[in-house]
Design a protein that fits this description.
The protein is mainly alpha-helical and 535 residues long. 59% of the residues lie in helices and 5% in strands.
Amino acid sequence: MKQRKTPVTASHVDDASNKKPSPRSPKPKISSPSLFEVFLLCLVTRIINSLLVQTYFNPDEHWQALEVAHRITFGYGHLTWEWKKGIRSYLHPVLFAALYKALAFLRLDTPWFMIRAPRLLQSIYAAIGDLYVYKFSRVLFGVNVAKWALFAQLTNWFTFFCITRTLSNSLETVLTLVSLYYWPCLRVFSTEVPSGSRKYALAIAAAACAVRPTSAITWIYIGCLELFTTLDKLKFVLLEVVPIGALVLGLTFLLDCQFYGSWVNVPYNFLKFNFFSSGGDYYGTHPWHWYMTQGFTVMLFTYIPFFIAGVITSKEWKLPGLIAWVLGIYSFLGHKEFRFVLPVLPIALMFSGYFLANLEQSVLSERKVREKSTSHIKPFPKLQMAVLFLLVTNIPMALYMSTVHQRGTEDVMNYLAKEAQENKVKSILFLTPCHATPFYSTLHYNVPMRFLDCTPSEEKGILDESDQFLEDPLGFTTKLALNWSHIVLFDSQEKQLKEFLVSHHFHEIRRFFHSHFKVDRELQASVVVYAMRGQ
């Protein structure tokens, strides 16, 4: 197998930073931190991260994970149409069901813990992913690049915004990072890989596919690379891929059958709906170039020039090829979302770290030249300005999106959860677009609740309840029985329903800020709670 040369300034071996600095060096190199110290830094950062995330991003965070886990643990919770069609695996919700079981056993299933504990658990997974960003960068490019790659991972606004949320994509991202570290085909020297690491890589990759079957897009690319570079191709396919994949997916199959109560092939159902029948298009479509021109570029944000420069200067093609492959395949699908390509965002940030590390090396070289010359003119601090630029652009964005933008639907359920504990809530009607708020997993109180259904219709042209309501709020609401103690709606619909609600003995009791600007519908500036008089 050929050994590829690379111009990276840092050593490729893990202990490169332990070499003694030259006597002429202006400053001794900082020794490499231990992996425990790196993990501790990541864990503390992600715990703070999870506590700061107080906004609503995507319904799946609650409805496809926590709501299902709540139903498993406490016996009540809503299962969306996906679970009736068998296109979701119970593997991901079971992790949070175990957490809920522990909270219930310790009598800690209070509103505060029910709201925050799942994201705190996810923060542990996220910290593991961060650690593997550091480890993977270190074995590829050296410890100096690893430090800057970790800096990019921890300061990127979208990673901060998304990675501690209880989305299956967040766990898929962590599993992807861990698995990539163990693949021999991605190392510069295959001899660096510990014996048996490929089996770990395959098992973790299979777990990622069990969590999200579309993760197979990543592993088809990596598997082909490994097949091309390995000498024992038959052993790889017949003695590793087939048995390990069958074992992991088989155990997941048994788990799903246990909870579904019948034989269900979740990966097939998932791929059939999302890929083969374009069922995801029901939730909206985007142009083919959306990931390149909007989606992934927004996620990378101001790290884009650093990523491009890192790819060019590193002359590494396998991982940039993976990013291009994933973005390309997902671009063929009509329905596109930011979170779908989250697993390759940390890889792009690794290359941003590569360029920042090279920038640091150039600064050190310039400093040596200045010390030898008689000139006292200080050069433009390129590295400091780059770091400041990245922090000033990413940190405010991360904080605004995590603590301000679209927080009303989270706040209203937190408020109702506390009210329900005091027996002040008897029933709730949500006159909002479907799945716009968390549900029983946050309320944690078994009272009747109803939201506007948006199950895809098999007949084209049939409007679901959510669309019917948005088209004619007053006309649709008059058809509903208004024997609810509380009604939740956005201010944009309140304008058309206020007189009607007041005439039916409802009055406003709370109003929560939601957003400064519209996203995919008209501006939903606030969320309003109405209660029946006497409640």
